[in-house]
Structure to design on (643 residues):
């Protein structure tokens, strides 16, 4: 109430005691204003929250099972999970070699995957559970375009080691989804939660039993 | 005002009876017919009323288009095609609305540059100007929502890029993005709400235009000389002088507009938007509508996501500060020998940004884009305040009537201050 005492006279100042002290009228004005503000917030919240993802949209995020035997060496398949494209790549030993190439590592902005764009079980040099199979959310961390899969060396520019190239604003990633420095995209491509249910089947949307509770919400930037 | 008899000039007792109770006729008489305007307004002053007429054309065609359109991701694209092929005059409604958006922006950009050239934003018209910038922002939002509705490839991917701008905000960016879309990526909830907002925003624009006009009435229109009206000898009534001038300008505009609608309705659009949206395939090049290209170029010129987004929005928000960044007291560029040229440099700069925005960010376009982005902010933040300090303006005419009747052309610089205020 000391603030009020020094504040400008509010509505109904004529009824204040005129000594610069808070009157009952001042108290009632502030109290009714505060109650009205709370009322407005209570009415606004259902309207605002109605725009958040609805129950059916959330339910559509159920896990999906993928059979990896159909993915040929060097091939990428794209599946939908939570209406987002998920890239699954069968990386050949040659492609894997580029991931530890110092030439590649020198170009990366976050070579050690220190930003949590992946579950802890994929925070390694190959950013996956098994080195051979890469699983990524195929959405550019810049502005949401779908990066193109460009595994051939020199296909994007001379000296290109193979990776992803975003057609919208030219962001580049290597074959582990790690972003190059000097491009507009700020982070590595996210790795979704997934686990192997058998030796050749993965389930996207579930963590391994000992893999913590990583979800899309845990990702810094999709 | 209660109890005042109607001042409307009429022989009709009915009109007088209504006007005494609901003073619509005297309002129109005082605010339009008899409203005094500076007598020297040029054709650059046509674009305000033209923008108002364009807003009505957009709302008019939009209401009828909404009767045929289905805001559902499975049906939207086909409902637009049905509109084009099966609905009587559906093609005409859509082409007017589509091209109307482009021409609305052409008109408004000319209107803005006119204000910049003749210093229309200066005291006491700062709020008038700022309300105009609000209208520009609302127009951009409305146009963006509208462009998503046909659910073509450019609709989908343009919207993906624009909504992802919000993810640049630290911490709350991702929740805001999900909230805006109503899902984890663009989908049916998104299209549905964009349709709702596209229908809502034009009426909010009408409201802000109302405020814009109230602010305009308070001090009247600026004029090519930028000096204040000093008396009735400087003014002429709006009707018939400017009603006729506006109507003539409207006629010329409608001819050009009609040529686009009937002869080249898709020139200003992107052919990729006649391909249905495919969430699994990004087009090789995503280009926004032409009227957003300069801002898009600024976004792409900065190799950092957050700063790029801030610069893009900053390019518009800097306009809010324009009345205070321009330190010169002289409004019209006629009397500003240095600013006059700097103004055209800004125009060239904006066109350069527009060109860069339309091309892939490669080679020379990256360099030009960065230089032009730098110059855009350099113009507003460094150049404008400085020029106001060191520029020596030409002597201002004594009054509008003196200047237009050429009785006296120049007055000593000493009276300049009085003339401007």
């Amino acid at each position: 109430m000391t603030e009020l005492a020094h504040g400008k006279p509010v509505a109904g100042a004529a009824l204040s005691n005129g000594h610069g002290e808070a009157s009952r009228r001042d108290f009632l004005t502030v109290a009714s204003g505060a109650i009205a503000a709370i009322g407005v917030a209570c009415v606004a919240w259902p309207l605002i929250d109605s725009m958040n993802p609805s129950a059916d949209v959330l339910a559509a995020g159920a896990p999906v099972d993928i059979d990896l035997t159909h993915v040929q060496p060097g091939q990428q398949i794209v599946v939908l999970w939570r209406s987002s494209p998920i890239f699954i790549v069968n990386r050949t030993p040659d492609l894997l070699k580029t991931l530890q190439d110092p030439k590649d590592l020198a170009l990366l902005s976050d070579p050690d995957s220190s930003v949590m764009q992946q579950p802890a079980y994929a925070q390694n040099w190959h950013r996956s559970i098994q080195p051979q199979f890469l699983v990524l959310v195929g959405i550019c961390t810049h502005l949401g375009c779908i990066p193109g899969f460009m595994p051939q060396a020199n296909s994007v520019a001379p000296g290109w080691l193979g990776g992803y190239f975003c057609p919208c604003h030219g962001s580049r990633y290597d074959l582990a989804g790690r972003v190059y420095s000097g491009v507009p995209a700020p982070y590595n491509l996210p790795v979704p939660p997934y686990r192997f249910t058998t030796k050749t089947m993965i389930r996207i949307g579930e963590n391994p039993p000992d893999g913590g509770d990583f979800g899309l919400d845990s990702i810094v930037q999709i | 005002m209660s109890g005042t008899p109607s001042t409307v000039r009429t022989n009709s007792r009915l009109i007088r009876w209504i006007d005494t109770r609901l003073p619509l006729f005297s309002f129109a008489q005082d605010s339009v017919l008899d409203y005094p305007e500076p007598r020297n307004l040029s054709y650059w002053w046509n674009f305000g009323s033209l923008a108002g007429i364009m807003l009505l054309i957009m709302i008019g065609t939009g209401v009828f288009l909404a009767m045929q359109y289905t805001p559902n991701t499975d049906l939207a694209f086909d409902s637009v095609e049905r509109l084009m092929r099966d609905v009587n005059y559906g093609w005409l409604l859509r082409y007017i609305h589509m091209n109307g958006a482009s021409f609305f922006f052409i008109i408004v950009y000319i209107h803005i540059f006119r204000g910049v050239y003749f210093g229309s934003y200066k005291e006491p018209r700062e709020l008038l100007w700022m309300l105009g910038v609000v209208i520009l922002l609302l127009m951009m939002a409305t146009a963006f929502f509208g462009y998503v509705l046909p659910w073509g490839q450019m609709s989908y991917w343009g919207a993906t890029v624009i909504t992802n701008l919000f993810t640049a905000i630290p911490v709350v960016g991702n929740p805001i993005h999900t909230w805006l879309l109503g899902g984890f990526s663009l989908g049916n909830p998104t299209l549905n709400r964009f349709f709702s907002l596209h229908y809502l925003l034009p009426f909010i624009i009408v409201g802000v235009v109302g405020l814009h006009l109230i602010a305009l009435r308070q001090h009247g229109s600026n004029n090519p000389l930028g000096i204040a009206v000093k008396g009735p000898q400087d003014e002429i009534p709006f009707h018939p002088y400017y009603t006729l001038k506006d109507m003539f300008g409207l006629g010329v505009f409608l001819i050009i507009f009609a040529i686009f609608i009937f002869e080249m309705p898709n020139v200003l659009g992107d052919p990729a938007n006649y391909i249905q949206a495919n969430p699994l395939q990004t087009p090789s090049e995503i280009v926004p509508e032409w009227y957003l290209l300069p801002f898009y170029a600024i976004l792409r010129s900065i190799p950092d996501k957050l700063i790029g987004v801030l610069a893009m929005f900053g390019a518009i928000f800097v306009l809010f500060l324009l009345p205070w960044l321009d330190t010169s007291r002289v409004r019209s560029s006629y009397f500003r020998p240095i600013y006059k040229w700097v103004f055209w440099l800004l125009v060239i700069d904006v066109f350069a940004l527009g060109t860069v925005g339309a091309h892939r960010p490669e080679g020379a376009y990256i360099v030009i884009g960065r230089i032009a982005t730098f110059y855009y902010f350099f113009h507003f933040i460094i150049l404008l305040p400085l020029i106001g300090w060191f520029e020596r303006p030409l002597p201002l005419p004594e009054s509008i009537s003196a200047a237009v009747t050429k009785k006296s052309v120049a007055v000593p610089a000493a009276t300049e201050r009085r003339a401007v205020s």
Q: What stands out?
A: Chain A touches chain B at residues 48, 51-54, 57, 61, 78, 80, 82-85, 139, 142-146, 148, 166-170, 182-186, 216, 221-222 (CB under 8 Å). The helical segments of chain A are 2-6, 24-49, 55-59, 93-98, 102-107. The radius of gyration of chain A is 27 Å. The longest strand of chain A covers residues 84-90.
